[in-house]
């Protein structure tokens, strides 16, 4: 039973008991927020959310889950969606907008919803904004042990992630393509206008295999079953010992010590110097799934300055979130400040995670193909996998009805 259903049941019981004096005359309205954060991250977000209760007459409850897609789908099917859900997949958000699940945002939130995190969509004859980023992350990063040779990296690889296993590998291929072929080709590929068998895309796959080098069957199997993150991070725990890891900014919470350095990934990917200023990014976007005007007002408040300041205050070092504009409060730890500077000042172009832009069916096929290629990085196997992906791409294109993602908003300069 969802938190809102529980609340409604309690409220109904209360109303039946009013004549007996069991309930007060008024109760605050409760809005339900569904999100991806659990553990310390979830507690920090929830603490911020409760601070937003003050003076509004509203009550907010947070439901955090690692199975966000499945939970949201079940709630929609049951006709009891959350008031607000926080998703990291633009492809899924586009599908929800086209299906009529989302309510367009108010003007105040729309002003903070700029590319590449929140494009405006043409749905039902109107160009509207349906979500806004709450926090963002930089992905084009390499973490390495201090003193390790930059020109001879031994790469850590962990590809397991419950139902979404494989995404650490798709991040590699996306980042390589971005730096080899540039943002324009990356955008056309992410939105389905460049074939998977295109030589530029194929080269990104083979470059990944070359960078990782030859691996024993035992090492391959170990990487396929190793979670992408552990209590101490892959650099400190993976066997055999490795020296470098390609991973996003969120991983800094396990590397909060001076023995690990972080730097842009461009220098490792065999790219072209003119594309060094391009970075892959991801975001967690809030969308309204109910018709309650109070839900739209909540998204406006969640994306505002006060909520961001409260969130940073409540989160511990290494878990303080990154926000999309240089004027927003940023992390206070040294590593976080360096990453925020790249994200908001040094980067010339930010490109949203390509697999999160793709329709969910294409994205899921990409995840599976990465796992299969990692296990068998041969030319024959790659031909087969890219052919399958082109078939999935063609099928997805048939369903690209009004509401599809505009190419112009996948990559953008920092700060909109």
From TrEMBL:
Coiled coil region boundaries: none
Which PROSITE patterns does the entry mention? Answer: PROKAR_LIPOPROTEIN (PS51257)
Note the superkingdom of the native organism: Bacteria
Region annotation Disordered: where it falls in the sequence:
397-416
Could you tell me the keywords of this UniProt record?
Signal
What Gene3D superfamilies does the entry give? Periplasmic binding protein-like II
Q: Where is the signal peptide?
A: 1-24
Give the stretches traversing the membrane: none
Q: What is this protein called?
A: Alpha-glucoside ABC transporter substrate-binding protein
Q: Which organism is it from?
A: Streptomyces venezuelae
